[in-house]
Amino acid sequence: MTEDPDVVSRRIARESLDRDDPTGWFENLYAAAAEGSAVVPWDRGTAHQLLLEWVEESSPDGADKTALIVGAGTGWDAELIADRGYDTTAFDISPTAIETAHRNHPDSKAHYRVADLLAPPADWQHAFDLVVEIYTVQALPIALQPDAVKHVTEFVAPGGTLLVIAAARPDDQPDAAIQGPPWPLTRATIQSFATADLRLIQLTQSPSPADESVLRWRAEYLRD
Questions:
Q1: Which of its termini does the chain have fewer beta carbons within 10 Å around, N or C?
Q2: Percent of the chain with pLDDT over 70
């Protein structure tokens, strides 16, 4: 019987966390998937449904604009945004994920590169008209999430938009009760993406099509 991909990914993550390497498991998982010994649970073979819905509702025009895809994985979200006309940069900490993205999308208009959200390139600060963060912050231990949130917000240029999609959890659920990854985001964490000049302009919560007991955030922010 094939082992549950979520169980496999959590085991790989736990091995990395036990070595005090909270981000190394991403490469280990993507490498195992490339070898056929694991499946990346969030690699859907298409852009995320909530991102697709946002694009359909907002009809963004990326002409002469830049976009950054955080934790791009194998590239499906980046391809959707690049197809909207954005000059799209997509990064992941896993070299194998980026190699797979290049292989999946050989004629891509997006620029794929290896980078670390917790130590991003300095020239990315306030550099992008659209920043898309899907499931990356929640894949990090709770103690690292505030730093990750801060870096995500700093990518957004003046007048730019940030879109965050994440699993949700109740604010009264204690951190110790979460056996991640993932570590779903509380409403307070979602609100922490907002700053003095980065305003939360839309927040929705909806059930996952695969499991209605799993709720997901879709949050949109605008930088003044």
A1: N
A2: 99
Q: Tell me, yes or no, if the pTM score tops 0.90.
A: yes
Burial class (CB in 10 A: 0-12, 13-18, 19+), 208: middle
In 60-216, where does DSSP find H-type helix?
76-83, 95-104, 145-154, 187-191
Taking a C-beta distance cutoff of 8 angstroms, is the pair 110, 88 a contact? yes
Rounded-to-integer distance, Cα 184 and Cα 178, Å: 8
- Closest of 55, 50, 67 to residue 110, by C-alpha: 67
pLDDT at 3: 67
The radius of gyration computed from the CA coordinates of the chain, to the nearest angstrom, equals 17
Sign of CA dihedral 159, 165, 170, 176: negative
Which tens digit of pLDDT belongs to each residue from 98-142? 999 999 999 999 999 999 999 999 999 999 999 999 999 999 999
